[in-house]
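The passage that follows is intended for readers who have already worked through the single-chain material. We present the inputs for a multi-component assembly, then the predicted structure in tokenized form, and finally a short commentary. You are encouraged to pause after the input and sketch how you expect the pieces to fit together before reading on.
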Amino acid sequence: MPQPAKPSEEGGGPRRPDTGSPDKDNLLKRMRRVDPKQAERYRQRTGE
Amino acid sequence: MRLFGLETEYGITREDMDSIDSVVESMELVRAHLTASFERRWDYGGEDPHEDARGFRVPCLAQDREEDEFAQVDAHRPLSFHEMKSDLVLPNGARFYNDHTHPEYSTPECRTLKDLLAHDRAGERIIERAAARRNRSLGGAPVQLYKNNTDFHGHSYGCHDNYLVRRSIPFPDLVTGLIPFLVSRQVIAGSGKAGSEAQESGFVPGGYQLSQRADFMETDLSVDTMHNRPILNTRDEPHADPAQYRRLHLIIGDANMCEYATALKIGTTQLVLELIERGAAPILELEQPVTAVKQVSRDADLKATVRLRDGRLLSGLDIQEQYYTAARQALAGSDPETDWILQEWGDTLRLLTQDRTQLIGKLDWVTKLWLLETFVRNERIGWDDSWLASLDLEYHNMNAERGLYRGLEAEGKVWRMTEEADIERAMFFGPRDTRGGVRGLCVRRFADQIEGLQWERIRFAGGLRARTLEMGDLFDPGEASACAEVFERAASPAEGLADWHARKDARL
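Having made your guess, compare it with the prediction:
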């Protein structure tokens, strides 16, 4: 059985993100643009 | 023995219409993937959701009546069943189709987490590309897709994780070993939800819970998937030699945006299956599993306890700790991937207790909660504000310009485990060491000579004798690679089949 690639910090593994506050970047702006009524309008049929 | 895959049903909407025909929209989305006209190739033989792993066959499913009603409506459409399903098998061995009005992407069978993540992300790219094409044809960007599990009106759709399991493991052992694990797995793998709801009943704003799906769990065990949803689905549809194998079909899981959460969800579940096979899983019998799954989900402080039949009270984290400890004792040192899962599982459980902020960008429920807390604080709104459900929904929007997770990813605030090159490759090639790779290879090389195909076989056209590549027991990685090599070299399917059969005969 071939050995699976070992995720690691160096190659192909998880890379640590910058988790500063979203206040400082565009995320909050993106969130403010979300229509407050969007989920109210969103309708799906039951799936599996 | 490791082999797993993910099926993801996406939510779909049209923002330029008040109400949509979801059958047509889902079908058109799938077909937007095609550059040629649709040809029916998926073979539905062997699909029987009425077979129950407990050893019987149910006469009907809870959803059959509703499905029959929809079928009556669909009968009046100018489209056949197969046209509506638009079942595609892609050159990477994946299945992409319209399932119950949701575009669904099923990854090919994968053997490593690295492959699974690449294929899950490849599915996202493929469905995003289809949406872009569909939007170009409509003008603007009216079609939006959501990798989530609820419409906030009591309708849920799934992200199912599947595992190949030896039939020799008694099904009751799987039940005993898995239910407490699945009830508590959401502390790692939940995608988070603002508010609460129940099957086909109204949304109640307020509060935050770990899981999208917990509200929809209604029973411990059931063959059903759309109503009366179970913590452990008992559908016995192995897509493999039924004498040797089961396909464990888990429907309790949330669709994850975070790669790390997907890796831990699949990785820890695989380890628990290995514990069960060795008879080394912890014995924890919950008094009321369905109540427990909701209790665990609705406590983001992770302090809520659930009662065991022996009277003990354990939190979701406590239960996960017991599984983790058993896995570390029994499986440490087995292989590098197992050691990676154990390391990350242990670290995650520790951080959930000590410093949750370090899991932002790794676990969806933690990441979404961080975003919503920030928003609530900045906008000075209450947790019962319906805006939060909309933000929750947008976390899962696949649109790079709008999706909140997409925004976090663009800003480098989430943990990535895939490389772009791996995702690109997974869009066109299946894993080389599984039958998914063989399926994809045959689609790439011999598409116009395939009459029908499905998970366990490919039926080629032409000739007097049946020309079928059977893959119901093609699970050894060396054999799968060898089969792929044979069909890579072959000038035709007939030559490939002849070579493959000769090779198998020579071994007998």
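Commentary: The radius of gyration of chain B is 22 Å. Residues 113-138 of chain B form the longest helix (26 residues). How closely did your sketch match?
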